[in-house]
Specification:
The complex is a heterodimer of chains A (about 300) and B (about 140).
Chain A lengths: L3 H56 L16 E7 L9 H19 L2 E7 L1 H9 L6 E3 L8 H16 L5 E9 L5 E9 L22 E3 L2 H77 L1
Parallel strand pairs in A: 1-2, 1-4, 2-3
Antiparallel strand pairs in A: 4-5
Helix pairs in contact in A: 1-5, 2-3, 4-5
Chain B lengths: L2 E5 L4 E15 L2 E5 L6 E5 L2 E7 L5 E6 L2 E6 L2 E6 L2 E2 L6 H16 L5 H22 L4
Parallel strand pairs in B: 1-8
Antiparallel strand pairs in B: 1-2, 2-3, 2-5, 4-7, 5-6, 6-9, 7-8
Helix pairs in contact in B: 1-2
């Protein structure tokens, strides 16, 4: 039987934990808002870039290494896995790790070579225990998602792809649906798929005038555009992943705050019962003592 | 109709406002665009982008790094990777970056990829300084 003092101290420590979790929840909520803002602002930029690529590729009949070819049989792949550095965010990291592990075992039969880039300490630690090493490992994503960081990762991936080291580049991340819902998805980033994104239908007028001047030549333009498009996509996925992380942490912390509240309630009831019991016991002792003296 | 739209990854800077004149640092040198310009699609490099609103509006300038410009009969669409106006620029930082870039570029033993990289950095820093000091005329 725990003493009154034990219960008292348990209530106090639970209250402290509750304070921390609710503070973390507020911090995550603020960070989530900023991350969400980022995603929304990026959309028009990413969309115009991809539309332009599709339009130029289609009207100018440009072929490029980074554009999707109809016949392909990918043999080597580079996977970028986005997780976070810190825990306390529910199943956010566990979901990514399990999904990636499952994907890896599926891919073994299809691909000759599977290389990984890990972003976030959690995913690296998880796979280090399973003796899987990444070719590249990046941390510090949650502090600030900078476009430069994304562009840097993209640059490395695209160089390896252009040299022919990989036939495909895929990214695994938590897609941001809402503050309480995130989905683990695997998207192909390279080669770029332009199906159904051009700005015109077959019967419509093309967006470009016949005498449109290209500076530099369309091939050169599309090369630059594709490079930038890839960087923007990596950046977008990172933003989504960070938004998901904050969303997941917010939900997890809200649940912990609630659980702590329930725990405190339960403990307080036990405490009060125990206190009452000891008072009753004392009263009985006093009255029996008095009875004995009187008797 | 001579409308300008500037989109960056973080915001839509100008959304279809009527312009008098647009001045961009294009791939083959600076372009001064007036209404009735021939249709053109060009990439942009590091430099100062300027635009003047219609009816005697004030001239605005932003430092950009990469982007593209698309001129159609309806107007000008610009996509810029970064677009910093005077208040976004840290002049001290830009000057430090410029002196560092010059130092590396003047070093005869510099690596070719470093030269390329710092050449861009130098131009970016110069554009930022120009916008910050209003010295882009």
């Amino acid at each position: 039987m725990p003493s009154l003092k034990d219960i008292r101290s348990r209530i106090d420590s639970t209250k402290n934990t509750q304070k921390i979790t609710s503070a973390l929840k507020l911090v995550s909520a603020a960070k989530l808002r900023r991350a969400q803002h980022n995603i929304v602002n990026l959309r028009p930029y990413a969309k115009s870039l991809l539309t332009l690529i599709a339009d130029v590729a289609e009207t100018q009949k440009v072929e490029h290494k980074l554009l999707a070819q109809p016949t392909e049989d990918p043999k080597s792949i580079l996977m970028i896995v986005l997780a976070s550095d810190r825990g306390l965010c529910g199943s956010f990291n566990a979901g990514i790790c399990k999904f990636t592990e499952q994907k890896l075992s599926e891919m073994k039969s299809q691909y000759d070579k599977v290389d990984l880039i890990f972003v976030g300490r959690r995913v690296k630690d998880y796979f280090a225990r399973r003796k899987v090493d990444p070719v590249e490992y990046i941390t510090g994503l949650d502090k600030d998602i900078s476009y430069e960081l994304a562009a840097d990762v993209a640059q490395k991936a695209i160089k390896a792809y252009e040299k022919g080291h990989y036939d495909e580049v895929k990214i695994v991340y938590n897609e941001f649906k809402s503050a309480i819902a995130q989905d683990v998805v695997c998207e192909r980033l390279l080669p770029v798929d332009t199906d159904g994104v051009n700005s015109f239908d077959n019967d419509e007028e093309p967006r470009f005038a016949k005498d449109l001047i290209f500076e530099p030549a369309p091939e050169k333009i599309i090369d630059e555009l594709l490079n930038k498009h890839f960087a923007v996509q990596v950046y977008r996925c990172m933003s989504e992943s960070v938004a998901s992380e904050h969303g997941a942490r917010m939900t997890a912390m809200e649940n912990s705050t609630k659980n702590a509240g329930e725990l405190i309630k339960g403990l307080t009831t036990t405490y009060n019962k125990l206190r009452q019991a000891s008072i009753t016991k004392e009263l009985i002792e006093i009255t029996t003592g008095a009875e004995a003296l009187n008797g | 109709m001579f409308a300008l739209t500037i989109v960056t990854p973080t915001k839509i800077l100008v959304n279809g406002a009527e312009m008098e004149e647009v001045f961009v640092p294009a791939h083959r040198g600076e372009l001064d665009i007036y209404p009735g310009h021939a249709p053109l699609l060009s990439t942009l490099t590091e430099g100062v982008l300027r635009y003047r609103l219609k009816d005697g509006g004030k001239e605005e300038a932003v430092a950009i790094s990469w982007g593209y410009v698309e001129i159609t009969p309806g107007g000008v669409q610009i996509l810029a990777e970064t677009a910093e106006s005077k208040k976004d620029i840290d002049l001290q930082r830009a000057e430090d970056a410029l002196s560092k870039a010059i130092e590396i570029l003047e070093n005869p033993n510099a690596q070719p990829e470093d030269v390329e990289k710092y050449h861009h950095k130098r131009r970016r820093a110069e554009a930022r300084i120009a916008v910050s000091k209003d010295e882009f005329q």
